[in-house]
Design goal:
The chain has about 300 residues and is an alpha+beta fold. It is about 55% helix and about 10% strand. The protein has 2 domains: about 5-75, no CATH class; about 80-299, no CATH class. The relative contact order is 0.10.
Length: about 300
């Protein structure tokens, strides 16, 4: 569509006839993110409040549609990459967010750990080294004071503030660990989120400690122990999970002990955000994030 045609549509966006507006909105949405800059320009110099409101509504819908497209591409072609999935969540709130500086920061943490790591050490010893660097040197910690703050679910905010909730800290921790070829994966435990160390080093054609790209979460192997990044990297066993589930009157199901798919992890981040915005009374963002959650769940 030519720019003159787009501008003609924009001129009708504040029409009092709702059917006219819906037609204009539909045509603009068809153009997608290609016209976002132009719409933003017109929104900044809107001639009246209704025009400004409707242009911003179309912009938000285009942005949400763009995030959905990126999530679909991620799920279908790149869902092993947890960092990208977590980044897309942040892109919803921070559309211009640049991933490159965050990757550089993660690589810096990785290097500091790698310099101390010894693959001849036991898995427990290596996890303790990760803890020393991640929680000691870089001072990441659970945000108990503002537990439900939306910032605790956005990658860039967690990195900048060095605070997060159980799932955001677990994601960052596991990303660093997997870049060091340590088989640490997320476990979708109810009411909390933890990590499992799943060792396959004793198996033929194993993945552990090998520079072979991202280790799949469903790799064959034995879970040696679990890690709780929200509690400073505390290490515990299956018995502790079993006890937690019984105390919480929750069913004992295998999925609460095993690593889960990255889609489940990102959906849980989105669900946390839904709850965060609900507590803040932000009904618009709550609805938008719920829409993203449901869209990813339906893929």
């Amino acid at each position: 569509m030519e720019q003159s045609e787009i501008e003609a549509l924009i001129s009708l966006i504040d029409d009092e006839d709702r059917d006219v507006y819906q037609h204009v909105r539909s045509k603009l949405l068809e153009q997608g993110e290609a016209i976002s800059a132009l719409l933003s320009e017109f929104a900044m110099r809107a001639e009246n409040e209704l025009q400004h409101e409707r242009l911003n509504e179309v912009l938000k819908s285009i942005h949400l549609g763009g995030i959905k497209t990126l999530f679909k591409e991620w799920y279908e072609h790149n869902s092993d990459d947890l960092l990208t999935g977590f980044y897309l969540v942040a892109r919803y709130r921070y559309p211009e967010l640049d991933l490159a500086p965050i990757v550089s920061y993660i690589d810096k943490i990785k290097l500091d750990i790698w310099l101390r790591l010894n693959y001849k050490f036991s898995p427990l010893d290596n996890v303790r080294i990760i803890n020393e660097v991640f929680f000691g040197k870089y001072r990441f910690q659970g945000d108990n004071k503002n537990y439900y703050a939306p910032e605790n679910s956005y990658l860039n905010q967690v990195v900048d503030n060095r605070k997060g909730n159980p799932i955001s800290l677990s994601i960052l921790y596991s990303i660093v660990a997997q870049r060091l070829y340590l088989p640490i994966f997320g476990v979708d435990l109810p009411q909390h989120f933890i990590l499992a160390y799943k060792d396959d080093s004793h198996l033929e054609n194993n993945h552990s400690f090998k520079n072979e790209g991202i280790i799949p979460y469903n790799v064959a192997g034995e879970i040696l122990f679990y890690v709780n990044p929200f509690n400073g990297g505390a290490i515990f066993s299956k018995y502790n999970i079993d006890r937690f589930l019984k105390q919480a009157s929750l069913p004992i199901e295998e999925r609460y002990f095993e690593p889960c798919h990255n889609r489940i992890i990102i959906m849980r981040v989105l669900k946390n955000l839904v709850n965060s915005y609900d507590k803040l009374g932000d009904t618009l963002r709550k609805a938008e994030v719920q829409e993203l959650h449901d869209f990813l769940g339906d893929l």
